[in-house]
Specification:
4 strands, binds iron/sulfur cluster, mainly beta, 21% strand, two-stranded antiparallel ribbon, two-stranded antiparallel sheet, 0% helix
């Protein structure tokens, strides 16, 4: 199970879970040291 609080993502079930079976995670910079340096590349904005 993937827990995620990004509720404005199409893949979120709105109760803090990602509905995908796997997600792709990338880094924000080439010198990743903190959690905040990472991002979910599977994020899809919901309008
Ligand atoms: S795709 Fe990424 S941002 Fe979207 S719900 Fe899943 S883990 Fe969260």
């Amino acid at each position: 199970m993937i827990r995620c609080t990004v509720k404005n993502c199409k893949n979120n079930d709105k109760i803090n879970h990602c509905m995908l079976s796997e997600v792709r995670i990338g880094e924000m910079s080439h010198d990743t040291k903190f959690k905040s340096d990472t991002k979910c590349d599977s994020f899809e904005p919901e309008f």
